[in-house]
């Protein structure tokens, strides 16, 4: 059995000055965060710089992370999302002054030649409107109030989409976890 | 804020996505600390989102890790990324535009200040000119009035019907001189008293006309006057000046006669 350190253990080491631990966290979460950033900004070179910036912020702000308030990945996701949104806001500071303009800009970029919006995993199995709702708030960085307008449905309806989507995801991941546990038990019993 | 409200309103999702206000976020954190079931539900939600992110993850190029490793290895704690992001590079023109705009704004502000100062100076000059103009106008009015008076006097004494008469002081007033201008046509008499010396405060000069041996009052004579109108008396044979008590007398004090002239 491999002795994989938990996030908390890595964070403790990082706080104690073990800088190399940052690369371990990078190996663990860079792929997921890069997917989020790339889907949000849709530019590879920018996404790479933002990913690096995200991890440097994680390093710099690691003392602010509170495990009681959520998982490390959730905290990292918020840093990646805010870093990306701030970068997109700064693209045209003399013109763009609020979030909506940034989102409008992002929408126009959806027709860019290279498509990073392809979905995988459980999300791909959901109904299109559930996929769209989750993608808008999680991968595009829109707020609920912005996203329901984007989908042209009332806010209440949009919230229902999110709930239904999350419920289906929970059921699917729950089954997956159960299957894994059963496999492990069967393998253990030989 | 209770569990029911949090679940019904989807506040856990909003908290996870970082959409809540700091106030609402603090409330959720408090509730999560005290509600184990809610904490479990939130944990599942976090795991599901994390799964979704992992499933939709993309492999970043190794250069990002290498750059991060280099940054971590450097003794200095980083503040920014190692390389200038492409987007930041793209922003350079925006920065230049911003600097140009800021420069133009500063230039505009300086020009406005300069114009304002000039305007203030011009306004001050205009006010000074207006004051001078008013002063000049007043002076001109006075000069015009003086000119009219003088012109009028000159006209009167230059009248061909005027008879100028010099009143020379006698032994009592040897230095005294006065000039009378008599116009029998218009029946006017003017007197120039510039040559009469001043008298004591309780005394005054008085002019008299001699008509058949009777001295008739022609009026008090002030000193230092260029041309003063006096009472014209018909059939006067001579003009006489006496020194009288201040305010004048009804009858001349003959012993105080200082000058006379025959017409």
Report on the structure:
The complex is a heterodimer of chains A (about 190) and B (about 260). Chain A is an all-alpha fold and about 190 residues long. Chain A has two domains: about 1-110, Rna Polymerase Sigma Factor, Chain: A, CATH 1.10.1740; about 120-190, Orthogonal Bundle (Arc Repressor Mutant, subunit A), CATH 1.10.10.10. Helices cover about 70% and strands about 0% of the residues of chain A. Chain A has nine helices and no strands. Chain A has helices at about 5-15, 20-40, 45-60, 70-90, 100-110, 120-125, 130-140, 145-150, 155-190. The longest helix of chain A is centred in the last third of the chain and has 35 residues, at about 155-190. Chain A is globular, with a radius of gyration of 19 Å. In chain A, about 40% of the residues are buried. With about 260 residues, chain B is an alpha+beta fold. Chain B folds into three domains: about 5-60, no CATH class; about 85-160; about 160-260. Helix content of chain B is about 50%, strand content about 20%. In chain B, the strands form two sheets. Chain B has a four-stranded antiparallel β-sheet, with no helix packed on it. In chain B, helix 3 crosses helix 4 (about 35-55). The N and C termini of chain B lie far apart (about 125 Å). At the A-B interface, helix 2, helix 3, helix 4, helix 7 and helix 9 of A face helix 2, helix 3, helix 4, helix 5 and helix 6 of B.
